[in-house]
Description:
Blueprint: H1 21-30, H2 34-45, H3 50-61, E1 64-65, H4 66-73, H5 77-89, E2 93-98, E3 101-106, H6 109-124
Antiparallel strand pairs: 1-3, 2-3
Amino acid sequence: MTRLTPAAEECDTACSGTSTTTDLEAIKLEMIDDQSAIQFADWFKAFSDPTRVKIIGALLQRELCVHDLTVLLEMGQSAISHQLRYLRNLRIVKRRKVGKTVYYSLDDTHIEQIFLQTLQHTKHG
Length: 125
């Protein structure tokens, strides 16, 4: 990975910008608000952990219980439950209880679409 030097990331001192103040104000009005930006970043942090990515990948196939996920990921139940709780708090996965068994699935089709698009992008280059 090449790193940019600080000078390469800054405008030349003579640069007066590429847009008018009116253009920049219009862009600013359309920008994501601070709270949404925080939620967005938190949501993508969920994808920063390989275990959570594997859980989501497994749940793409079908609804699974905690035991199924422990077998698939070869991890303890407590570790899997911790990750599922994290994902549930972000509304990435949802649960359904049948008797004493809790089944997990992806919260909605947006999760699947975003996950698959991101996976496709990582395999692209």
